[in-house]
UniProtKB/TrEMBL annotation:
InterPro entries given in the database record: Rossmann-like_a/b/a_fold (IPR014729), Universal_stress_UspA (IPR006015), UspA (IPR006016)
Record bears the keyword ATP-binding: yes
Keyword Nucleotide-binding: yes
Name recorded for this polypeptide: Nucleotide-binding universal stress UspA family protein
């Protein structure tokens, strides 16, 4: 059975955009969709009538979301799932057997403000890639942007983004953004020598990251971009007219798994377009 796309449903009003985006993707990839809502009942007692009311409201929320999904892509198989617990717990559990988890943003305190714990928690703990979808229009947008920094996480993000761009017939922009080192780091170094060496190292990072794409995707147009702005700022500006932004995340185990990464964290806080946070895939070594 094909792994479904899991959509986190809540009562913030951010559902429609997330469901619509997920349904179009599911139709294109011929995947089923699961609409998941979690009722956080940790503080409830079974004797409370509110427990029944909360579950009734949750069921109605899922019914409404399913009706919207059917209106978007009526041929896609859709299931609703109601789980007790936190949203992070519910979606992490479902992410173990999902191709993608999709959540609506709808969580800004103010324009450019921080995200609530819910979106950041889910993007941090999910096992599969996580897409965060805002309510901005997706029409008249073009291109897939991927941010890189030379890490294993970003290299795998490029592989994911290239496959997306090739499938969608979009051009791929691979962006490596790095702030210029402070003046105190440059002290004592010849200006021209320092600048040339620094730029050459960053060009090498970018070149190594995209190596092999031309052979695997001969028809894919790939743009390499070096930017000297802070990474989150450069990516947000580039993604303002893009169809999709892809970022890698620290995805190991233990404490490391819970670290989303400062750039991904900042980008989600100023969401410019649908953004996918990929998860690193560890290759098991043969004994």
């Amino acid at each position: 059975m094909k792994e479904p796309i899991v959509v986190g449903i809540n009562d913030t009003g951010a559902n429609d955009a997330a469901v619509t985006w997920a349904m179009h993707r599911a139709a294109a990839l011929k995947l089923p969709v699961q609409l998941v809502h979690a009722v956080d009942d940790r503080w409830m007692a079974e004797s409370f009538a509110y427990n029944e009311m909360a579950n009734k409201a949750a069921t109605e929320l899922l019914i409404k979301a399913k009706a919207h999904a059917a209106g978007v892509e009526p041929k896609v198989e859709v299931r609703t799932v109601l789980i007790s617990g936190t949203a992070g717990y519910a979606l992490r559990k479902r992410s173990k057997k999902a191709s993608l988890v999709v959540i609506g943003s709808g969580t800004h305190v103010r324009p450019g403000g921080r995200l609530t714990d819910r979106a950041l928690q889910i993007a941090s703990v999910a096992v599969c890639p996580v897409a965060v979808v805002g309510e901005e229009t997706v029409h008249n947008r073009h291109g897939v942007i991927v941010g890189v920094d030379g890490s294993e996480e970003s290299t795998q993000a490029v592989a994911f983004a290239a496959a997306e761009a090739d499938r969608e017939g979009q051009e791929l922009t691979v962006m490596h953004a790095y702030p210029i080192p402070g003046a105190w780091l440059q002290r004592g170094l010849p200006e021209s020598s320092f600048g040339e060496q620094f730029m050459e190292e960053e060009r090498l990072v970018l070149a190594e990251t995209v190596a092999g794409l031309a052979e695997k995707y001969p028809d894919l147009v790939v743009h390499r971009v070096l930017a000297t702005d802070p990474p989150a700022q450069a990516l947000a500006e580039a993604a303002s007219t893009a169809k999709l932004l892809v970022l890698g995340s620290r995805g190991g185990g233990g404490i490391k798994r819970l670290l989303l990464g400062s750039t991904a964290h900042a980008v989600l806080a100023q969401l410019a377009c649908p953004t996918i946070i990929t998860r690193i895939r560890r290759v098991k070594k043969s004994k």
